[in-house]
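Entry for the shared binder. Reason: the reviewer on the internal report wants the predicted structure included alongside the sequence.
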Amino acid sequence: MQVLPSLVLAILTILASVAPAVLYSLVVWWLDRYEKEPWGLLAATFVWGAIPAILLSLVAEFVLGIPFAGLFDEAAAQLIAGSVVAPIVEETAKAVAIGLVFIVFRPEIDGVLDGIVYGALVGFGFAMTENALYFLGALMEGGVRTWLIVVFTRTMVFGLNHGLFSGIVGMGFGYAAITRSRWKRWAAPIAALAAAILVHAVHNLSVSLAAEMCWPILISLANDWGGAIILLIMILLSWDREKGWITQELSDEVSAGTLSQDDYDTAALYGRRVAAQWRALYFYGLGEARRVRRYHQVATELAFAKRRLRDAPGDKAGERIVSRLRAEIRVLKDQIAEQ
């Protein structure tokens, strides 16, 4: 009779780990309003956080924790491992994925918002696997009541944490992608990684101390939710900046005949874009809605490609991208006009 409850709890544990990570990832994906990142690349960063980053962190934390275990008593060694070693190791392991996207798929990161998206995705992947390990441990050691407390705490109260930490790192890489200063291009990711480690360390230390004194939990809450609010503000500012890029870079495409005036007016207004896609779905079906959505996506990609080209005039690869996007827009416009 114990087999069925154990199986049910195991399934619930998996759902409690996966569902919040997927939900939070979809919210972040939605926040990337004007130019959605490729699904394959988003999935790759999520998987990196869920598997390689976790494995690297477990090994590194075990190895680096050995000296502290020999120098301090068990309580002090655990405090140092959780508050110093873990933040450094975990944020570095997650940052590798963001760095690889930045280096290998540089055109995909058009600014701070894109960096936050990739950072948050790798963070939520990491949180999914880490939560599963914590939930199983709570279930085996403390039973259902402890399991419920841990699930609520790690998915609701502190559910955004790893997305926040690595989102900060992503913000640094996003800034590096648009700055013209060479030293800032190098310094921004390093400074962002240091900030993520610090925020992570403050959280871990305050939670550890809260087990003894309670009140430090307030520091953790202020640290975590304050950081999330700051990150949200950066996202809102990024919306305004991206809207400005679209308005500026696509204005001459109207006179060139690439875009109609109505399409230009729609491109920079998220609400009008969504309304146009819903009208296409209602009157012509899913295929037409996808074409309209792709049309807006490619127009945005053209604006961002032209902005990059403005910062690097004479870039032949950039010029080819701009030409390709213009050609695709014309094809899509003709297909849509046929309806």
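Summary line for the report: The chain has two domains: 3-238, 250-337.
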